[in-house]
Design goal:
alpha/beta, seven-stranded mixed β-sheet, disordered N terminus, PRTase-like, allosteric enzyme, GTP-binding, nucleotide-binding, uracil phosphoribosyltransferase
C-alpha cells in the first residue's frame, strides 16, 4: 500500500514539473507498450492493490466482483463474458463479414489466407488417403516444419540440404517400418515382454537418379545392409507431355527374391518416371505388391495415374500438393529438388 501511495505522489510531482498534458501523453505511450488497457475499459474495474505477478495487477470487476488480471486482453475478454455487464460496457463485436473485409485478409497478408491454404492441403491429403488404401502420408509435426524450410525460396543451399536430409531420414525410417513383416516379442533388461514388428533384413532400394540418390543415402544410413539398384530416367523437357525416357538400369541379379523393393524418387508430378521405373521392376520379376515408392512431394494427378496403372504398389509420401502448372511441376512445390539439393541451379 505504501508503494502505491509513493507512486501516486511521484506522479503528482512529475505532473507539477512537466505539466498534465505531457504526463498524460507519456502514460498513454507507456500503457501501449506494457499492454495496459485503455481508460474506457479500466473504468469498469476497481484496483485491489494485489499483484498477479511482477508486471500485472489484479482488478475487480464492478459488475460481478470477480478478480481479473489487469491486462487489455484479460479485461476485454472478461467483459465479453461477464453475465452482469451492460451492453455498453462490452467490447464491440466483430462480425464475420467485417473480419473478411480487413485489409490483411483481403490482400493475402494475414492468417486467413494461411488457414485457407493449409485447409486445402489437408483436404487434398485426406481425400487421396480415402481414395487409395495403399497411400501412406505420415502425420508428424516435424514434417510440416521441415517442408516450410524446404519450400522457402530464400533457403540457401546448405539450409535446403540440411532440412531435406532431416526430412528424408524420417521418410527412410517410415519406409523401413512399412516393410516390416514379422511380429516378434522380446524381453527387456527389466524382465518385461515387449512386442512389435521386427525390421525386415531382405530389402533392396532402387533410386531414380539423380534426386533419388538423396533418399538412398538416408536409407543406407538407417540400414547399411540394404541392397542397392540404380535407374536413370529423365523427362524430355522439349515435349509438352514431358515423356520419361530410360537411359540406364543397374539392378541386383536376384531382385525378384527380395521381400520388399523401395523405389526412391523425391518428386512425383505426372507420375511418368515412377511408372516407368515400376514397369522396369516388374519386368525384372518383382511382384507389384512388394514395391514401395518413397516420395517427398507428390500430387493427385500423378498418384491417380500411378494407382490406376499399378493399384498394388504402396506409396509413402510426406506431402501431397494440390495441382500442376503448365510445365508439369507441382504447386505450391519446392522448385527443382535435385538442383537445390546439389546446388546446380541457376
Amino acid at each position: 500500500m505504501l508503494k502505491i501511495v509513493l507512486t501516486m505522489a511521484e506522479k503528482q510531482l512529475q505532473k507539477l514539473k512537466y505539466g498534465d498534458e505531457l504526463m498524460e501523453a507519456a502514460e498513454q505511450i507507456a500503457r501501449g507498450k506494457t499492454g495496459r488497457p485503455p481508460a474506457a475499459v479500466r473504468i469498469h474495474f476497481d484496483e485491489t492493490g494485489r499483484m498477479k505477478n511482477a508486471s500485472t495487477s489484479l482488478l475487480v470487476c464492478k459488475f460481478c466482483h470477480k478478480e481479473v488480471a489487469g491486462r487489455a486482453i484479460s479485461l476485454e475478454g472478461h467483459l465479453k463474458k461477464c453475465p452482469n455487464a451492460p451492453e455498453e460496457a462490452r467490447p464491440p463485436k466483430v462480425t464475420k463479414k467485417e473480419k473478411l473485409s480487413r485489409p490483411e485478409v483481403v490482400n493475402g497478408g494475414g492468417k486467413g489466407e494461411h488457414k485457407q491454404a493449409m485447409k486445402k492441403l489437408c483436404t487434398v491429403t485426406t481425400s487421396m488417403e480415402g481414395k487409395f488404401r495403399n497411400l501412406m502420408v505420415p502425420k508428424l509435426g516435424a514434417i510440416q516444419s521441415l517442408h516450410l524450410m524446404l519450400r522457402d525460396k530464400r533457403s540457401t543451399h546448405i539450409q535446403f540440404k540440411q532440412h531435406a536430409d532431416r526430412l528424408m531420414r524420417i521418410l527412410a525410417e517410415e519406409a523401413l517400418a512399412a516393410c516390416a513383416m514379422e511380429f516378434a516379442t522380446v524381453w527387456t533388461p527389466n524382465g518385461m515382454e515387449y512386442s512389435g514388428m521386427r525390421p525386415n533384413n531382405n530389402l533392396c532400394a532402387v533410386s531414380i537418379q539423380r534426386s533419388g540418390d538423396c533418399l538412398l543415402e538416408q536409407v543406407l544410413r538407417c540400414d547399411p545392409a540394404v541392397s542397392v539398384g540404380k535407374l536413370l530416367i529423365q523427362r524430355d523437357e522439349t515435349l509438352t507431355e514431358k515423356t520419361p525416357m530410360l537411359f540406364y538400369s543397374k539392378l541386383p541379379p536376384r531382385l525378384a527374391s527380395f521381400d520388399r523393393v523401395l523405389l526412391l524418387d523425391p518428386m512425383l508430378a505426372t507420375g511418368g518416371s515412377a511408372m516407368m521405373a515400376i514397369q522396369v521392376l516388374l519386368n525384372s520379376g518383382v511382384d507389384e505388391m512388394n514395391i514401395v515408392l518413397v516420395n517427398v512431394v507428390s500430387c493427385p494427378i500423378g498418384l491417380s495415374y500411378l494407382f490406376q496403372a499399378y493399384p498394388s504398389v504402396k506409396v509413402l509420401t510426406s506431402a501431397i500438393d494440390p495441382e500442376l502448372n503448365a510445365n508439369k511441376s507441382v504447386l505450391p512445390g519446392l522448385g527443382s529438388f535435385g538442383d537445390r539439393y546439389y546446388n546446380t541451379g541457376n
